[in-house]
Amino acid sequence: MNIFSASQFKRFGLGLISLLLWSSLCFANNEADFFKAALTGDGATVEKLLAEGLDINLKNPDGFTALAVASQKGHEAVVNLLLDKNAGVDIENIQGGTALLLAAKNGHIAIVDALLAKGANPNSQAKNGLSPLIIAAAKNYTDVVKKLVAKGADPDLSDGSQTTALHIAAQNGYIDIVNTLLAHGAKPDLQDVNGASALILAALVGAQEVVQLLLEKGAQADLKATNDFTALILAAQNGQTTVVETLLAKGANINQQNQDGITALMWAALHDHIDTVKLLIEKGADTKLKSKSDKTALDMAKDQAIIDLLK
Question: Which residues, other chains included, contact 149 with Cβ-Cβ below 8 Å and sequence gap of 6+?
Fold first, then answer.
């Protein structure tokens, strides 16, 4: 019978520890190589490491899988390889983002298509409420937006501030995306946490085409945001004369007052928007209305040309 001496047992123990440490180090190196390969689009290394038994759904410290990394970087061949080997498509990182969200964020339409074909959830949301559709709309990726809504993305899904893809597209004047979202059932009068609708946001920045389209699709011209601001009041405040004319043509209340009693005419006069003032007067704005501080548009005007118009 063989009996280990104390020194032999010690050498055996040290050898076993060394072997375990070496194995652990090799495994760690393999993990690093796996994510590096996904990051750089090295499909051959990804395939080799998977063949050696590496977990296809392994996560890095930020919760990203190889599929998420490759999707973010636009490495279509690696994405397809991972999908063919049944990588999890809806695994979330520590921020709640998925491979689809990352692909949509970076405009990788072919990868978005591939992920959706494998059953990726088009309505997944990160912890801040952002969805692939909201991000694609914000980035003005029209093709990605079209693909997502065609595959069931909810156009009315909102983030933590109740902002939808339509809000963002309208505020940025992305007419094609606004049209696509409305065509897929987006509600034009949804309001964000500040009470702003898509129309109010579009009017604020002077996105005339978007304003026109939203009104044609049934958006309420006199919907009120926080402090009773309407699209007309905000358009006048910012000197968006063409938008003001469009809103008035669709029946917007020219004498609507906000909670401070200020009208579109008062705001236009206060901010020296003479063309807007002229239009509002021509369209019948009441120059005698007073705010809650008992001031008329004339009282607020500073520009002499506007003062003369209001007298």
Answer: 133, 155, 180, 181, 184
Q: What is the C-alpha to C-alpha distance for residues 25 and 258, in angstroms, rounded to an integer? A: 67
Give bridge partners of residue 158 from the DSSP assignment: 164
State how far the Cα of 106 lies from the Cα of 245, in Å rounded to an integer: 38
DSSP state of 286: -
pLDDT digit string, tens, across residues 131-172:
999 999 999 999 999 999 999 999 999 999 999 999 999 999
Domain boundaries, the chain: 11-130
Look at residue 29 in the predicted model and tell me its pLDDT.
81
CATH architecture of 11-130: Alpha Horseshoe (1.25)
**What digits encode the pLDDT tens for the residues 42-57?**
999 999 999 999 999 9
Residue 274: what are its φ and ψ, rounded to 5°?
-65, -40
DSSP 3-state assignment of 212?
helix
